[in-house]
Amino acid sequence: MLRFGLIPLVLLIGTGWFAWASYRRAAQAERALAELHAENRALLHEARALERAVAAAEQGLRTLSSHPSVPRDVALTADLTLADIRRLAERKELDD
To answer: CA end-to-end span of the chain, whole Å?
Structure first.
């Protein structure tokens, strides 16, 4: 008789432990996902700020390069586009 009562009790305890462990893993995964989303949003915000800064710098360089008092070699150097800068940066990353 003890054997028939012990098996369901062990199964119940095992099922409860498995359910609790699954819940803890799911909660931990949910927290990790929330942190990942927050970090992703922060990185996107930073990337947009950097893109705005680059666009402002490009506009400043265009203004500088079109000014008559700027020497021609400086004007040509200042005339790099964002695509040129990205291409140069990608090539440098590949060289490293």
So the answer is: 74
Average per-residue pLDDT for the chain: 80
Q: In the structure encoding, which two tokens stand for residue 42, read together?
A: 């922060």
Q: Please say whether the beta carbons of 61 and 79 come within 8 A.
A: yes
Contacts of 74 (CB under 8 A, 6+ apart): 64, 65
Tens digit of pLDDT for each residue in 63-75? 766 767 766 656 5
Each residue of 43-80: b (16+ CB within 10 Å) or e? eeeeeeeeeeeeeeebeebeeebeeeeeeeeebeebee
SS3 assignment, position 18: helix
Distance CA 18, CA 81 (A): 58
d(CA 40, CA 14): 39
